[in-house]
């Protein structure tokens, strides 16, 4: 006879590892399918592992009256989105470094491309809503940590991260044209050398 989620949650609260294993077997494939459906498949393995670790560590405060299904899916989604946000920040920094190196390696137009890149970033910052702009400047220009910004602004660290992500995503979107220009200049300069 298959045990209900509520029964397994009650056993899990008591530290029963078999209950965790049974819940994992029941929900890991469903969570993977869900993450795949929202195009977060690259983060599925880590999200599933982290999700069930969190379930284990938080087992004593589980409310067996609530839906385990909703609980586990919410945790998995949040872990996957955090990983995705982190990946987007890394990609933005890589893009900025790539653009900078392309601009530096191109011909005498480099100062113009660098200046244009700086102007695009400044314009993008100017067009941001107040909070994302403030968070970006505190983080990137003043070098403050997420926790420091959170304390200074009186908001949660996750709110600070959300504002930072909003700023970075908008800047990336706004400066993408300069990458295309820099790549074309670099490629045309390379072809002219042959």
TrEMBL record:
GO cellular component, one term: DNA-directed RNA polymerase complex
SUPFAM superfamilies attached to this UniProt entry: Sigma2 domain of RNA polymerase sigma factors (SSF88946), Sigma3 and sigma4 domains of RNA polymerase sigma factors (SSF88659)
Transmembrane segments: none
Pfam families reported for this sequence: Sigma70_r2, Sigma70_r4_2
RNA polymerase sigma factor 70 region 4 type domain location: 120-170
Domain of life: Bacteria
Record keywords, A-Z: DNA-directed RNA polymerase, Sigma factor, Transcription, Transcription regulation
Protein's UniProt name: DNA-directed RNA polymerase sigma-70 factor
Organism: Marivirga lumbricoides
